[in-house]
Write a structure and sequence with these properties.
The complex is a heterodimer of chains A (about 130) and B (about 280). Chain A is mostly helical. Chain A has five helices and one strand. The longest helix of chain A is centred in the C-terminal third of the chain and has 23 residues. In chain A, about 25% of the residues are buried. By secondary structure, chain B is α+β, with helices and mostly antiparallel strands. The radius of gyration of chain B is 26 Å and the shape is globular. In chain B, strands 1, 2, 3, 4 and 5 form a five-stranded antiparallel β-sheet that branches. In chain B, strands 7-8-6-9 form a four-stranded antiparallel β-sheet, with helices on one face. Classes of the chains: A mainly alpha (about 130), B alpha+beta (about 280). Strand 1 of chain A pairs parallel with strand 9 of chain B.
Chain lengths: ~130, ~280
């Protein structure tokens, strides 16, 4: 491809081991949480819980619903690309639902809502007039 | 430097249910480390980094306040992303620094002992495993290579109703604009899927080629775009343990592979301390 190899952070060009600062947070977390020698210390913290809660839910995600979708796939032994495919399927499903809702609902709920808003505006105006 | 017991209560037993004031956070284990190499290095929580010796090995540690790094507070704090980032970077920084001096076995984040004597006991219990790991890592370094799928040239799909055909009066209603939109969208997704498949094949080839140059190789699960800040899908997230004298060759090969495989864009990171190969080496 046209793009050159992009060294992460400050790259290999320093020529020294460990010369790569500042490294991407994701790469660091991946290594310090997921790799490294695991020896049970005296203080026991289950990093599996942490990976689940912090990394999957809070680092990546906007909503719990999305988290559920992504969380299953990230940092687990799912085959690669599964997350992407799952997202596409879900996106497709959501689009179908939305289109169906729009098509069946065109002269239903929305005008009612619009009317209700107008009523509220009128009543607010009235309140102001009363003041 | 020998077991300095600065401020650490060494007499209490492990069964003691009352939380200690200080604990010992361990970063890495190495064969030997002259104390002056640690001058000024700061650990997690800001304390000075020091060493604990045992069984001919050296643990790189720092004392930590157990009101922050004890079991319960640690569990809570690790859920705080800002705290996690600071702590992870500090842990990494120490490992990075000592890995410049010589081979090290990196410890996973949040390995905490009650006192220095417990660290020394661990060194002695795990001596064989640690020594083997140090031997495996000596003279080698870790590189990371990511491949992103180059998914380009896809036409933008207009939204539903954007080009709704005018229905002749009395005609049998055809598929609505929503259905037409979904058809176009499906076709687009199929094309994208194909590109991802090609990228996947390229990624496998890249990983195989780099694995051939490396002493060991591992594949991480690809990172999510929200984490990478890349919109492109990551199709390879590899780590490679490379002999120091083949590092230049490895880097050149990454560049060459990037040119050869048009469906992916490669990104090289490192050299890293050999985190990914601290435990049993895996070749895939």
């Amino acid at each position: 491809m046209t793009s050159a190899v992009q060294p992460g952070g400050q790259s290999y060009s320093t020529g020294l081991p460990g010369g790569h600062e500042p490294a991407n947070l994701g790469d660091i977390l991946e290594r310090v949480l997921d790799k490294g020698l695991v020896i049970a210390g005296d203080i026991r913290v289950n990093l599996l819980d942490i990976e689940l809660l912090t990394v999957k839910l809070r680092l990546l995600i906007v909503s719990v619903e999305t988290a559920r979708e992504l969380g299953i796939a990230w940092w687990e032994s799912d085959p690669w690309l599964t997350p992407d495919r799952r997202n596409l399927e879900q996106e497709n499903r959501q689009l179908r639902d939305r289109v169906a809702a729009l098509e069946s609902d065109q002269d239903g709920r929305r005008p009612v809502e619009a009317r209700r808003e107008r009523v509220e505006e009128r009543s607010r105006d009235r309140d102001r007039a009363d003041d | 430097m020998s077991r300095s017991a600065r401020g650490i209560a060494t007499e209490r037993t492990i069964e003691d249910a009352v939380p200690e004031k200080l604990g010992v956070w361990i970063y890495a284990v190495t064969g030997s480390l002259p104390g002056e190499q640690l001058g000024g290095v700061t650990g997690v929580g800001g304390g000075p980094v020091r060493t604990v010796e045992g069984a001919g090995l050296v643990a790189v540690v720092s004392s930590v306040d157990l009101t922050t790094f004890g079991e319960e507070p640690l569990r809570r704090n690790l859920e705080d992303l800002a705290w996690l980032e600071t702590t992870a970077r500090a842990h990494h920084e120490v490992i990075n620094t000592v890995s410049r001096v010589g081979p090290i076995v990196a410890m996973r984040l949040a390995t905490v002992y009650r006192d220095d004597s417990r660290v020394a006991a661990m060194l002695s219990e795990r001596r064989e495993e640690l020594t083997a790991a140090l031997r495996r890592i000596a003279g080698r370094t870790e590189f990371g290579v990511k491949a992103y799928a180059e998914v380009t040239g896809l036409p933008r799909v207009p939204g539903p109703g954007a080009d709704a055909p005018a229905q002749p009066a009395g005609a049998v209603p055809g598929p609505g604009p929503g259905t037409a939109y979904l058809r176009r969208r499906r076709a687009q997704l199929a094309t994208r899927d194909q590109m991802l498949q090609t990228a996947a094949t390229d990624a496998d080839a890249v990983h195989a080629a780099l694995g051939g140059l490396a002493e060991a190789a591992r594949r991480y699960v690809p990172q999510h775009p929200q984490l990478t800040g890349e919109s492109a899908a990551m199709v390879l997230n590899g780590a490679y343990l490379v002999d120091a004298d083949r590092a230049d060759e490895f880097v050149a090969t990454v560049r060459a592979l990037d040119d050869q495989h048009s469906a992916v864009r490669l990104e090289l990171t490192g050299p890293w301390p050999p985190y990914s190969f601290a435990a049993v080496a895996e070749t895939s």
